[in-house]
Amino acid sequence: MNRHTLLGLGGWLAAAALTTVASTWAVSLIGVHLTGQVVHPMTLSEVERTLAGAAGSPTFVLPAAPAAPAPQATAREFSYGQGSVVTACETNQAILLSWSPAQGYGVDRVERGPSPVVSVEFTAPGERTTIRVTCPAGAPAVTTHSTGAD
Question: How far apart are CA 132 and CA 120, in angstroms?
Fold first, then answer.
């Protein structure tokens, strides 16, 4: 390296260091003027005293329950090698509540309902299985159809 390159590099490093120091100082001044107080980190003993003086106990809120079918609905789970479905019937309308493909399978199409016929397609390389649900007597009835994937 020649002398001019070293001087240029040294000047650049000095300017970067000076800019960093000046920026940090300016931000600390702005923080003091915005809040009217100097913020400093708490020591471990200050944290312990603050926590010891805190009133009450932490609260835990349970998440809302997932939507359930209406009281007159009949829910049922069906499991197959390609995946499983949870379905319900409500006034002779089928509803897919949930579906889960088996390992190695994916979900291609879903028709959730409510509808006279709902379905889900589970796919894997070389295979496509359609699970259809109807409610002929107010209870879920399932048919499956498997074909080679296109």
Answer: 7
Task: Identify which of 82, 124, 80 has the alpha carbon closest to the alpha carbon of residue 101.
Answer: 82
Nearest in space to 141 (alpha carbons), one of 82, 76, 71: 76
Q: List CB contacts of 90: < 8 A, sequence separation 6 or more.
A: 69, 70, 72, 73, 114
Helix/strand/coil for 144:
strand
Q: Are strands 118-124 and 127-134 parallel, antiparallel or unpaired?
A: antiparallel
Rg (CA), the chain: 33
Classify residue 100 as left (phi > 0), alpha (psi -120 to 50) or beta: beta
Burial of 71 (0-12, 13-18, 19+ CB in 10 A): exposed
Q: What is the pLDDT of residues 94-118, one digit of tens each?
A: 999 988 888 888 888 899 888 999 9
Ranges of each domain in the chain: 3-52, 74-147
